[in-house]
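Batch manifest, entry 17 of 40.
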Amino acid sequence: MENIKSVYELTKLKDKLQAEFAKNKLRVLVCAGTGCVAGGSLDIYAEFKRLIEAKGLNVDCELDKEDNCQGEESHSGYQVKKSGCHGFCAQGPLVRIEPEDILYTHVKLSDVEEIVQETLIKGHIVERLIYQNPMTGEKFSQEHEIPFYKKQLRRALANCGNIDPESLEEYLVKDGYMGLANAIIKTPEEVINDILESGLRGRGGGGFPTGKKWQFTRIAEGKKKYIICNGDEGDPGAFMDRSVMEGDPHRVIEGMSIAAYAIGADEGYIYVRAEYPMAVKRLKIAIAEAEEAGLLGNNVLGTDFSFHLHIKEGAGAFVCGEETALIASIEGKRGMPRPKPPFPANKGLWNCPTVINNVETFANVPIILNKGADYFKSVGVPKSPGTKTFALTGQVANTGLIEVPMGTTLREIVFEIGGGIPGNRKYKAVQIGGPSGGCLTEDHLDIQLDFDSLKTVGAMIGSGGLVVMDEKTCIVEVARFFMNFTQNESCGKCVLCREGTKRMLEILERIVAGKGQSEDLDLLVELGQTIKDGSLCGLGKTAPNPVLTTLKYFRDEYLHHVENKICDAKVCPALKVYQIDPTKCKGCTRCARNCPAGAISGKVKEVHSIDVLKCIKCGACVKACAFDAIEEV
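Output type: structure tokens
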């Protein structure tokens, strides 16, 4: 693409591309997010290209430089495109046909020929490939009618799944870089005021007002200033930032460029986990495209504003999600946090004033500069305007990436967007915000999910992970899992986090092993509060949250583990209790003969019994019984 030297040239190019884009007869979008790629979507994409060309359809790939396919340049043909994540991960690989908005789910390589023949040529819908609600059996052919999508409001994710993430032209068609164009015709102070007026708060978990952070950094003393995008997404079950970087990398770059203009920075870093190779690849492509077009680098859009962007791949340390540890990592040091103040706004990267926001925060910035602060805060709640992305996982019918207005209730997300709990099982809880968050029970289903409401119940949005648990989930084991994660990820710099999380983990492991005592529960609370109060960084201060909130809301389940030595969910192996159903037992003695602990007694042709004190919970008796007479209780 030729260098764009002014806002006028950008607007003119955008209008031209939009007019050409509108001429497309039909467009096939194959999801190429990480989940769908793992399911074989790249092979599906290649097969669509091959078959459409073989059938002589006018394939238009003018915007798809890497494929070099043949076709007219009129944009009147069939486009086959790779897109970013569509969000509906449980149904992948996904294929959407535009403009009819037909969504095909669980697409296999062998399905491609039928889709081409029936849908692209004949205009028929392949019924067996459309979404069917697993709870009601209702079928939906159009994506926007599927409850998973219908209940969402996708703003930060608007382009994810709708454009080719490796095409600058497609981003421009969707009004890409118009937010930057609007920013550079204003003063930096006016841009910051727009962000302040919007009420945008950091989407990385803390919820600090973005405009204030930018304002502090702009007035800080220092000739050199930096912008950092925190893409170090490490929470278990979280993949929001990854999906945005993979599916809409130019939006992240645009948001960072606007921030750089506002605070007076000429250099920035995207800190992204090395475990996200696809995100790294697409960000590099986007940076190169933006530099070639004059949207990044020296004299952006022909102005005096220059901004250079680099990618720093992290080594996968969870603590590097903390801003000062992240800064240390970029500087080539071990990723360990430092005390604050001074805050990065005053002394950040190489002791220069630095703005650090996460991926989703930057993804919202172009919306505000393009459509205005009033548009942004037209949804959400007064103190938490806008939308929020969540990674919906666990025991829920529809797992995937979602975006909803701030203030949406947990009930709406789990039972409407998520489709409810599979197998007619009962909802138990949601772990929100990963290790930094907390537990929300059935009593919290109608709580609004926003920064302030969650604080009242001891939880936080965190990065946006939502792990749904049903009645078959052991709460104590969940707490142990998260504590094991945070203990492993502790950098070890401060004693309270390093040793305190280790002691808490030891207690939890003792409890699930059937060796816990009642006093252990009070000790967990005492340790947890001490760690929260005295740890240096956010990892330590929030590490006890999963334990403290589950103890608060599910204390009875903990008591059953330590007093009755029973796991209600029948998950903890050491707490399994087996008994023989006298109505089914035939007295064949096979269970007794296969028990390695000699815990089963009984005479031939008489009902046998299990000595729970001798039983080692190995399950050998269950496997040996031919009459299904032995069950876990």
